[in-house]
Amino acid sequence: MKSTAKWTAIVVTCSNKALTPSLQQALKFRQSKGYINEEAIILTVEDPKDDVGSGGATINALLTVIEYISAKKGYTVINPDVLKDASILILHVGRTYCYDTTTRPLITLPAEYVAPEYDDLVYNLDFIIRIIGERFAVKSGPGVWISSTEYILSIPEGTDIPWKECEVAGVTVPSTMKFCKDHGVYKLDNEGIVQDILYQKGADELGPCQRRDGSVPVVVGLIYLNRNVAEKLLSFYIKPPLDACCYMGIDNGQPPIKLSLFFDVLLPMLTDITEEDFVSGNRSASYGKPSSVVDESTACMRQARRILWRELHGYRIQSCMIESGSFHYLNDSVTEYKKCQQDSPFKSYNFKDVVWKNVVHSAIEPKSTKLSDDSIVINSSVRGNVCIGNKTIVSHSCLHGRIDVARDCIISGVKIENIKDDETVEIAEDIVLQGFNIKLKTFPVKQNVFTVHGRFDNIKAPTWKTTSTFCNTPWLLFLNRTGILREDLWGTEVDNDDQTFLTAKLFPVFHATSPVGLKEILWMQGTVDDDEQKSILKRWRSSWRLSFEEILAFTDSEKEFQYKKDLFYEVGCYQIEQALNNKENVGFRKLYNTASREGYTQAIFNILDKVASKTDSPGVAARTLANIGDLLGSMAENKGGLRSGPAANNAWRQAFQLLEDDQLEAGVEALAAVRTKWLNRPDLLVRAARHYEGAAQILIRKAVMTAKKYMDHDKADVPKIGQWVRADCPARIDLAGGWSDTPPITYEHGGAVTIAALLINGKRPIGARVRRTEEPVIKLEIVGAQGDKNTVVCSELSHLRDYCQPHAAGALLKSAFICTDVIDLNSNISLSEQLKTNYGGGFEMQSWSNLPQGSGLGTSSILAGAVIGALLRAAGKCCTSNSLVHAVLYLEQLLTTGGGWQDQVGGLMGGFQFGYSDAKLPLEVKTIPIEVAPETVTAFNKRLCLIYTGKTRLARNLLQDVIRNWYARNPYIVQTEDSLVSIAGDCKDALMKGDLDKAGQIIDKYWELKKRMAPGSEPDRVTELISLLRPHVNGVTLAGAGGGGFMFVLMKEETSQDLIRKLLSKKGLEDVEIYDAELDNQGLTVYFETD
Q: Any idea where the GHMP kinase C-terminal domain is (predicted)?
């Protein structure tokens, strides 16, 4: 995003008092989301009286904001000095707009922000503020900018704004005289100083304004005032009768006066205007048109203009001509509205963080909806057998059922639901169908009213004209078809010239005995016929009806704003439900951030609770609970501490136990009950989020445990008592694809990893041995890397119950007995009886690893495979390596440590392996041995260098962050996962071809992808090492999750370890240790020890 002005204040003026709260709320929400600088004062100022004019509204807004800033700075009186270095933007909201019930600035556009922190609709207002800030205010410096919101200024990307230092500036663009007959035109001198402003003049009168190319400078509606001029305008609040255009004068009892910004405030600054013409009103009055009426009001205005002339005539207006710009006024024609939507002039700015789309924040049922490619749908819910024709625009609507919308229609604010199965609602071509929430002072119930007219109707044209139409049909034909009389629409008191669509009482609001609304609208537009009894006509005639003009006047702006916001979240909740149940790669963190700011979190909690409790998939339930954690984290707004942390508070224990016991619905309900008590402080919100992530982990474990389906074993000879069964395993390094094997990613996205098994210093560094003993106990001995031993004896079932606590002594070994069903922990039979009955005695087990803790070489998972392999054989059973891979997955869920499958694939299978899993449950891991030529293996061994960085990994914290980002479906993370799976296949292919240089490049790319998945996984020391080795290596990465442990490199040259040792010594890194490593082709070996 380009640099932009830091606004001191943004003030919106509004003549419609009912609209001010909605505008204020919209602006404050946008500021809270970062679209407006946070220090800016946001004010929505209603005009002190009706129709004080744009000039009066400007002075009142300036007074209000300066008073506000003065008070904020500690002054007790209004102090104009606060204008020094202040940048103020005043935006004028104009008249009611036919095609958006919340006025022109809040017209929603078919656009979205790219990768935003918040989910939101894009408004005209967003672009207006941004364009003035980025293109103009950054050049002008401090001062006051004043802008209408009824136009769009289009400036091509890269256009330089020809700004000149000045007292007052008027932005302009070249236009045609034909276009300007309905607008204002500047007359400029050779220096670009404004000499005159001509309004709605013909070509003859605009001749003096013509430029050499025949164009004329159109009045855009964007004005700049420097500090001196702004102070002068501010001073009018104490100068009667000018004070009567601001609230202080009104509060002092002054009758209001109307001032035009251009023809009262700016006109005295023009060089061609004389004092006599200005003061007399020959050029002022009603937008530059002279008035012959002389009364008290006229005298007051002349006195006001004398002051304006005296105070302002010394200033000059400098034009700011944007030669390549264009001006678009949002009038009341359907054509202009459709142009704004289908080919918005705002597109010319080519903002890099904005993407224009035909479907924006809408819930569309894809299987049953036919949506034309060139139609537009914004903030709408479309479900059922809906057909939307070419170039039709649907906004803020619910279309549910069998609905056919023909081409070139506008559907706005319409709710069509509960249609009978055998009925079809048909909207004819070129129809404008709208819904309005109205509020009547004499009728307490708020009503929703439908209106309809045609795209080609001139809504202001008298109906007696032959060209005048309704629903694109001549009025006479419409009246004849329906039986409606002119007296029904206008009575007898309305003059012929005033009998227009705007004034026709066409639209039924309520009926004494029958519902009215949609059917009558369809009848009027011609897709529903009346019956022989003229039932529709009779019901229509006996209804209480309003004209379009009255409906616009009675529109409940606050209700309209709320309706659109409610629909926004209704759509969001539907999208959440569909994405979770259908396992789509769509994230909602930006919606959660928005809901937290706007107070809509409960609606989202409700839908998430519903999905979590009703699904039969533990994977869907886990993702949903994690999403609730994300929503809680959003509510904390980064104020409650780190997201990672403990999740074992007693308050949540009962809910967790229900999930453990497979009582999902009750567990979700219990979680929600606890949650309600943890919502009132940021720290509690973060802690609640941690517990929801803990709940999700329970369900992730259950999802991964579905891998038990692929665990099987056969019977084998039972070794004699005292016979040691030994299992030895190599370590492993991940060459490409890691993180894609991590649950839940592996069963939601699908994973693929290319792995190599390694001998370390010529040995298999990981192993276990098991023997049967006569004594019916289980004796466990854990041997550390330094030869230290820890012995645990289990003589009762209770001694095994801490198997699920990873830090309990011998927890991994205990889990092996549970995982393999050697021991039934839930049995009523004692441990000793189970052992004697089934195995004729007990077991003694030893395990070891000769690698440093946190090595990143897959130690714990590979050790689990060794332990299970040895235990099964000692118990008279055997299984395949593939079965062991799934057994380790299952064991690690019992142990509650989680983890993926790449470690055991590499350590148990041996050689180069390509492991993969599909995006489904039950979780199944498949492996393909990579056939690599012997000479390639030899070269690989000579070019491989394994380096211990001396820094222990913190994989657990990295894992939590990765899973959190995956569950949020961060698009960057989803894309990275795609790349991880892809390069795993590329690496396999490179090895098969013997292309180690290519494999090294892939390993390099792999490390970059790992860092994307887990930012912070490259400590400073590792960065230093990589930089040191970079000239000598083809590829480098940390093993496993990163963060520390072992680093392996594929050197450019063979046998380069001596070179690396010299580099490390020279750099003072002698504590960084190099290990001998080479490919192991065997993998797990299980055998009987001999004396």
A: 989-1063
